[in-house]
Structure formats: C-alpha cells, structure tokens
Amino acid sequence: MEVLRWLPMNKKIFVFLTLIIILASFLRLWQLGKVPLSPDWDEVALGYNAYSIMQTGRDEYGELLPIVLRSFDDYKPALYAYLAIPSISIFGLNVFSVRLPSAIFGILTVIVTYFLARELFKNSRLKLEIGNWKLEIPEAATLLLAISPWHIQFSRVAFEANVGVALNILGILFFLKSFNKQWLLFLSALMFGLGLHIYQSEKVFVPLLLIILIVIFRKRLLAIKKKYILISSLIFIIISLPLIYFTLTNRDVFARAKGVSIFSNSSIIESNTEKIARDRANNDILGLVLDNRRVEFAKYIAGGYLSHLDFNWLFIKGDIARHHAPGMGLMYLAELPFLLIGIYSLIFGKFDKTVKIFTILWFLIVPIPASITNDIPHAVRVVNFLPILQILTAIGAMSSLIWILNMRHKILNIRISYLILILISTLSIFNLSYYLNQYFVQQNYFHARYWQYGYENIVDYISTVQKDYKKIVVSNASSMDQSYIFFLFYLKYDPHKYLSEGGTLTGKIEGENQFSNIEFRKFNYYEENEKNILLVGSSFDLPEVFKTVHEINYPDKSLAIKVVEKNK
C-alpha cells in the first residue's frame, strides 16, 4: 500500500491505528451537540463572535478582525473563533458547529500522539509480544489517549486549550523531525506560534517548552543550516508579535491577568498583613522573616503546583462539574498503578537519556502556568498533561504485562498469571464502561445546572411571544450570568443589526446589555413600574409567590428558568 510506504508502518499497525482513530472519532463526535446537553457561556460566546466575524468582520464589541476577544471582559486569544467559522458556515450557528473544531483537533491529537511517541521511543526495546503481534509504546499510548476521560470530555466542548494540545504535539513532532528534514522546522515554528493565539496558559507553557527543546536538543539543532533556524525564528516572531503588542498596550488585559493571579488575591494579602502585624506586636523576628510576602506567595505557588499532582483530584474527585463526569476523576482509577510504574520505569529503565530528560521536564513544566493562578487545581490550565500521562501509563502497563508474561514460567503459576491478566482486563473494561455511562448518560441528568441548561428552550419561548410585550427583562444576576450571549446565540441575532444597535457595551459580570426589546440586567419585581412586560429569571430572581406564565425545568424536574408577566 502506497500509504504504508509513506508513513511507514506495517499492515497490522496500520489496521490497529485505523481502528483506534475510528474509536476516538466515535467517542468525540457521537451526539456532539447533545452531550453535554447545553453549551456554557464561553462556548456560545466563541460561537456568536465567530458568527459575527464571519458576517461583519467584527466581534460583538465592533472590533475589526480581533486578535484577542473581549469576552465578558476576559481577554482571550481569538484563534478558536476563527477555527469555528468554517463549521458555522457549513452547519449554521449551533452547538455542534461550535464544538466541532475541538473534536477534530481532539482526533488529530490522538493521531499525532502515535507519531510523536514513535519518534521519541523509536530505540526502545519495550515490546509486548502476544503470538505474532508486537505492541509497542506508541500503539499503547495512542489507545489510552483515545479512551482517556480527560481528553474525550475536553474534545467534546469548545475548549481552546484542547486545540493547544494538538498544536504543541505537532510543534514537538516537527521539531524532532527537522533534524532529518530541516524544512519541517518552519512548520514547528508555525505550530508553536499559533499555540500562543489559542489559550492563556500557552503564553507561559509554549516558551518553557521551546526552551527545553532548544537546550536538550541543542547539538542536533546546531547541525541544522542557519538559514532554516533564522527563517523559523522569524516565523515564530511574526506570528507572536501582534499578540505581544496587544498584550503590552492594553491595560484591560493586565487588569484581567491580575484578577486571576494569586499575586492579586485579596485573601492571601489580608492574611499575610495580619500575620506580619501579629509578628511585629510580639517582636517575633523569625516570624517576620518567615511571613515575608515573597515567602507566603512561594508557599501558595508550591501548593498550587502540587495540587495538580494530587491523586485524589486526578483519579477520584475530579475538577469542577463541567470538567469531568459525575462520580469519577479525570483519569481511570485502573490507570493509577500503571502510571506510577511507568514513571519509575522511565527514570530507571533502559531508555534514551535525552528522551528521559525531555519527557520528565515536559511533565514537570505543565502545572507551572496554573500554579500562579486562583481556582486551583484547574483541569483546563494543565490539559498539556495530555498525552504525556498516557505515554507514562503505557510504559507502566506494558512493563507490568511483560513482567507477568515472563514470570509465568519462572515464579508465577501459569494459571495465576492468566488470572492476573483477566483481572486487569476486567477492571479496565469496567472502568471504561462506567465512564461512558457516567459521561454520556448520567452527566446530562446530574450536571445540567452547571451547563447553563434551559436557555435554548427559554429563547424559543420568548421568540414566540416577543411581539406581544412592550419589553422583556432578562436577569443578568449571578444566577443567570451573561444571559445576553445565549439569546444572541440561539436567536442567531443578525450581527449587523446588533452592532448598529451598539453591540455589547460591557461584558462584565452582572453588567447590562440590550437589543431589540429585550433588556439584560438585574431587576426587582416590585420596582418594575412599566406594564405589559415579561420578567425572565431563576428562582432567586423570581420567588414562587409570583405567577409563572412559563418555566423550564432541569432534567431532575427542579426549576431552571421561569417567566413572570407584569401588567399592573
């Protein structure tokens, strides 16, 4: 087969990899627009801004071809919105089209992980032989990533960070391949440059990753012709410059950065101030040294870093509801022993020294961007753990299985060895089955409220009665944050018209917005003096004493959104 000559790989590996890709595609595309059952506000914001740029060339604030999206006054790189334009143009503005780029890049990540692992471990002797079949690290790591809960659920939501993972892997792969085909260094620079435009954490992670690659592989890099290095550097700089310029010249960007940084965390600062005051009052010299603000922040950074290595968080508890399936963590519990064995095997096993150092450093730098932020641990900010966790787990699983198979003729009874293999297989299948049920079935029931469920149905209702009322007021209080963007999204509100009406004035939490005869703001039923209006809100905004004309319930039958009419 011509394809096999180009890849190159044997027929069995090609078939195996094809089956894995089919499996990965199914898990990431099946019911993509329905599971999770509702988009969150970031997804609809990305979708509507992509729709607006496609129609007008401008975002919801009227910014022409923005490099950065001012979404809810959170300034985020705009690349994902541009990636969503082709799918929106084909399928229309809907949940499926907004999530599709993430799913496609998720599938791509599974594919390129195979080639990266093959490049890194091409000299590895770790091979699992079953009959005439040989399973190596690349195949095992690819399979594990294809069924990874963390990667599946992040590929099924419009998470910009998920695209960043694919770009980083491609960047590493092209970098390593450039030692033989030097022009591939151009593509490596392109991938890393684009990565900076996809997610905030990448602004820290990509430079760290590049430093590691350059330092570890400096001898082979210096063997590349200088013109290739120079052109690649220019490609990276040219792609990066617009984002760097915007970041340095926009005060609001720094304001947002301060908002998520631990260095602006008021609780830490207040606690530290109290400690220092107490130390001074007690004339505690050592206390003044130890309670120094720099020491205090260093402790928090270290704690934030280590929180992402917490096994309870990774395997049991998980992250916030939108980042994991109910009742389980980000990884399968069955993976835990193999991950530990894999780390041990990599460090002390017979692997290429350079590969060892690179793999370990890649693993160690992932939590750094997240460790200086609030709301930790945070699964999105450390998603670059993928696919390195799967590679380590694959090494551990293969090492364990090889040991079991080799020992059946020496230490273990043959029946016992087969019993162990059956036990491992059963546990793994149970873990996978449990996850699939929790994610694709149970999640829509238990986690609906965390996905801002109800807006699609309420928008459908409002659109049928909108002309019958003078005004419709939709709550924008904390219980219904950023309600305006859901209405724009589901109404497919004409971006030209929206911008002519003023566009988004402020995207701040509990800010105010308006288009057509719909207002988005906080309200008090008793203070609304106009007649013939509808009030839309949650149970917090509209208590049960008010007569409901329409309501939307969560799948568990509890109230999500209600509509109250006011004519007096």
Can you tell me about this structure?
- With 568 residues, the chain is of the alpha+beta class.
- The protein folds into three domains: 2-260 and 300-445, no CATH class; 262-299; 454-566, no CATH class.
- It is 59% helix and 8% strand.
- Helix 3 crosses helix 4, helix 9 packs parallel to helix 12 and helix 21 (388-407) packs antiparallel against helix 22.
- The termini are far apart.
- The model has no long low-confidence stretch (mean pLDDT 89).
Question: Which key phrases capture this entry?
Answer:
alpha+beta; six-stranded mixed sheet; two-stranded antiparallel sheet; 25 helices; 10 strands; globular
In short:
The protein has helices at residues 2-6, 11-29, 41-56, 79-91, 95-120, 137-146, 149-155, 160-177, 184-195, 202-216, 218-222, 226-249, 251-260, 266-281, 285-290, 293-307, 311-317, 336-348, 353-365, 368-371, 388-407, 414-446, 455-465, 483-491, 495-500, and strands at residues 68-71, 74-77, 127-130, 133-136, 471-475, 513-515, 518-521, 533-537, 548-553, 559-566. It has 568 residues and is of the alpha+beta class. It folds into 3 domains: 2-260 and 300-445, no CATH class; 262-299; 454-566, no CATH class.
